[in-house]
Amino acid sequence: MIKKGLWLLIVGMYTAGAAFAGGGGESSASAGGTSKVYEFNFGHIQNPGHDLYIAIEKFAKMMNEQSKGTVKITVYPSSQLGTEREMIEQCLMGTLDIAHSDPAGWSTGLELPELAVFGLPFMYDSLEVQKRIIDEVVLSEFQKRLVPKGIHPFLIYSNGIRHSILKNKPINTMADLRGLKMRCPENPLFVNTWRSLGCNSTTMPWSEVYTGLSQGVVDAAEADAVGIVNTNLHEIGKYYSRTAHMGGLFIISMNEKNGSRFLRMCSSFF
Question: Per-residue pLDDT tens for 248-259?
Answer without folding.
Answer: 888 988 888 855
